[in-house]
Amino acid sequence: KFNDIVENINNFTPKQIKKRTKSNISKAEEKALENLKRNQNIVIKKADKGGATVIINKTDYQIGMNKILSDKDTYEKIDAHVTVEVVKREVMKFLEENKKLFTQNEIKYLQQYEMRLAYIYGLPKIHKCQTLKDKIKENPTKNGEFKADITDLQIPYRPIVSGTGCPIKRLCELAKIILRPFEQSIEHLIIDTDDFLRKLPQETDYKPTLIAVDIIALYPSINNELAIEALKFWFNKYNEKFLRNFNLEFTINLIKFIQNHVYLTFNDSTYKQIQGTAMGKDHAPPYANLVIGYLITKKLYPKLAKKYGPACETHIKNNLKLFLDDGFIMLNEKYIPAENLLLELNSLDKTIKFTMEKSSESIAFLDVKINIKPNIFVSNTYTIETDIYSKPTDTFQLFSFQVMCTTSYS
Fold it and tell me: Rounded distance, CA 248 to CA 242, Å?
């Protein structure tokens, strides 16, 4: 599979498009965009969720990002001597040590491309700010515009590492290809909203407590040693899922190499991420899923069986659904109270922490609103209904189904 990808990329020749496309905005709008682009006092970012465009004072943005980078458990500011060439030489050395696993074309693909150090930026998480949501509710606008002071609202940022072209970019692609088959073995994992709806029952014979859990800053919170422990668990359990001649020893060395070479820049300074993984890296989603899957499978389930009984373990296994850092459970509290379940989740690892929302009637998970209603035809049963959910900060921006992108995305 990996060799096929390399061959396809090497043989790809884009067609020359000579026809000039017609602009879909007016001259005045083009001029306004140019003026915004030239303004050195602002930063324009898309919101973390909801499709909104956020214009931020540059000083406020830098304060927010410097606050993230000041976390010395996750980031280390380093001297400028760490250049692209320095990291590239280490990549070449790693590949030379493992050259028997690759073809010449694969070696060439993994190390010969235009490189630069990754850079970090932040997406404003306006959906996390209750003050902003309240203000939008009080003063709704037809055009979706809303002006507020980011600093006063204390809106956090989601750190994203743009790794396109960085020296370990293609090693991360390789790690993703190797990890994906193991990720598919996680029973409680859901891949998207459609998968969640397929696995959600239509009715239940008990009145459930609807629970939505969230993991705080999952990616940077993953302890490097925990990640290696988790990956070894999955690799030993499903050793047959390794592709080609890749094996446990090589994959662990690959992950450790990536962990030790996450260099990024911000405001002319260079940092090294010393803990966790970076959002924006290709392998990050399966990497994170395998770590959380390990904590749930190896630690949570046995603990529940021991403290609350096998029936509790089975109940949680049958009802827990996780999508990266978001989880959903239809909980029968006769097995375990919701508060106790949260305590057990937060006891799994000292750096990974869960928050919980619960309701006996309705709750949101991903872009789905789940509602519980008594079945009027059958006593002591409850019907599960779903609807589309959107966050209060959502701008409801849509595009034509005919645009040039994949059908699944449309």
Answer: 8
What single-letter DSSP state applies at residue 98?
A: T
Cα dist. 60→25, 90, 277, 348 in Å? Answer: 30, 37, 25, 36
Compute the residue count for the chain.
Answer: 410
Q: In the chain, which stretches have pLDDT less than 70?
A: 1-3, 5-21, 80, 133, 135-153, 392, 395-397, 399, 401-410
Q: What is the pTM of this model?
A: 0.84
Provide CB contacts within 8 A for 381, sequence distance 6+: 203, 204, 205, 374, 375
Q: pLDDT digit string (tens) for 264-299?
A: 999 889 999 999 998 888 999 999 999 999 999 999
Distance CA 173, CA 365 (A): 29
How many Å from the N-terminal Cα to the C-terminal Cα in the chain?
A: 27
| CB distance 243 to 250 below 8 Å | no
Q: How far apart are CA 329 and CA 211, in angstroms?
A: 5
